[in-house]
Amino acid sequence: MDKATGGWISGFIGVLIFSGSLPATRMAVLQFDPIFLTVARATIAGMLALALLLLMKQKRPSGRDLAALAVVAGGVVLGFPLLTALALQHVTSAHSIVFIGLLPLATAIFGVLRGGERPRPAFWIFSGLGSAAVAGFALSQGLTASPAGDLLMLAAVLVCGLGYAEGARLSRTLGGWQVISWALVLSLPVMLVVALYCRPPSFDGIAAPAWLGLGYVSLFSMLIGFVFWYRGLALGGIAAVGQLQLLQPIFGLALAAWLLGEPVSWTMLVVTLAVIACVAGARRFAR
């Protein structure tokens, strides 16, 4: 298996794992405060990451890597989880999942700015068409469902794209699982303090689905998914493998309908199919 193929396989596994993130967050945020949910998931994942780093006897990152790790932590440990949790108080996970179709374009742009990649012009056409389909969906809703929810999702996509690109760049030297682990550990002291401060007065009455949602986003969305994702981006290219995120909406929509019983409109399906159709063309011209 060549390096590019290995990168696409790893990236695809990461996308499958991430597809459950928004439905799981929706399950959890119905009973947990968004800020507590954000810091709690980062605290749990950070403790697991610290144990893993100690067990594997990994050396500490160099001083020049700390700034990049801080960007990763700000984007994917704090920014995206918090912004999506806040958004999901206003919109359904099925609605928010479609905005994930903008992530490939954001990731590709930051891949150029931070990773030094140079996709061919045709790549941007296909990537732009996928993003345009997502933007068209938002406009077709008239932004009346919740302007606040949509703006929060757009902000989440931007900070996540930056965190993906920066983490992928750093993975070339540190390794994929090491990058997310050190980012989590770097965030752990602050996250732990805030989690203790923001914890609910009582956990009585918190139903099993909320606990399951918290467990999923802590273990899979915050740690395991990134092990595969950063490895995929580092091996196959940030812009190219990043297009796999166009598959995430359809997996997420299926999970939202199955787990949460949320309605999935025909417009959501059309948009999802349209952005998926763009991934083949974007992949062909990524390099």
Automatic annotation (TrEMBL):
Enumerate the spans annotated as EamA domain: 7-136, 149-279
Cellular component aspect of the GO annotation: membrane
What subcellular locations does the record give? Membrane
Q: How does it sit in the membrane?
A: Multi-pass membrane protein
Matching PANTHER family, A to Z?
A: EAMA DOMAIN-CONTAINING PROTEIN, INNER MEMBRANE TRANSPORTER
Q: What is this protein called?
A: DMT family transporter
Alphabetized UniProt keyword annotations = Membrane, Transmembrane, Transmembrane helix
InterPro entries per the UniProt record, alphabetical: AA-Vitamin_Transporters, EamA_dom, EmrE-like
Q: What is the similarity comment for this entry?
A: Belongs to the EamA transporter family.
Q: Where are the transmembrane segments?
A: 7-29, 35-55, 67-88, 94-113, 122-139, 151-167, 179-197, 209-230, 237-260, 266-286
Q: Which Pfam families match?
A: EamA
